[in-house]
Amino acid sequence: MQKQAALGAKHLKDAKADNDESGAAGVGAAPNGGEEGSESDDKAKVDAIVGLYNSTKSQNGGKK
Questions:
Q1: What is the distance between the alpha carbons of residues 8 and 61, in angstroms, rounded to a whole number?
Q2: What is the tens place of the pLDDT at every residue in 11-63?
Q3: Among the listed residues 58, 36, 38, 40, the one whose alpha carbon sits nearest the alpha carbon of residue 48
Q4: CA dihedral 32, 37, 43, 47 (to 10 degrees)
Q5: So where are the chain's domains?
Q6: In the chain, pLDDT over 90 holds for what percent of residues?
Q7: How many other C-beta atoms can be found within 10 angstroms of the C-beta atom of residue 11?
Q8: pLDDT reported for residue 62
């Protein structure tokens, strides 16, 4: 158990060193606002699918 504890401590120490050397702490996380126009494109796709569903439903008398 002592050997496993020592290996665990070494792993944590090495992982911290790797993280410190990687420069990951300096990477920002600023939101970019998303893709321009994607929300209206998604709405158009959903509306088209719902319209297609409704037209097939009405053609079949409301039966699947």
A1: 67
A2: 999 999 999 999 988 888 887 776 676 677 788 899 999 999 999 887 766 56
A3: 40
A4: -160
A5: 38-64
A6: 50
A7: 10
A8: 58
DSSP state at residue 24: G
> Residue 2: CB partners within 8 Å, gap ≥ 6?
none
- Buried b or exposed e, range 33-61, using 16+ CB within 10 angstroms: eeeeeeeeeeeeeeeeeeeeeeeeeeeee
35 residue type, one letter:
E
**Residue listed under structure tokens 């401590």:** 9
Q: Which two tokens stand for residue 50?
A: 């719902």
Amino acid, single-letter form, for residue 8: G
User: How many residues make up the chain in this entry?
Assistant: 64
Helix (H, G, I), strand (E, B) or coil at 34: coil
CA 18 from chain centre, in angstroms, equals: 25
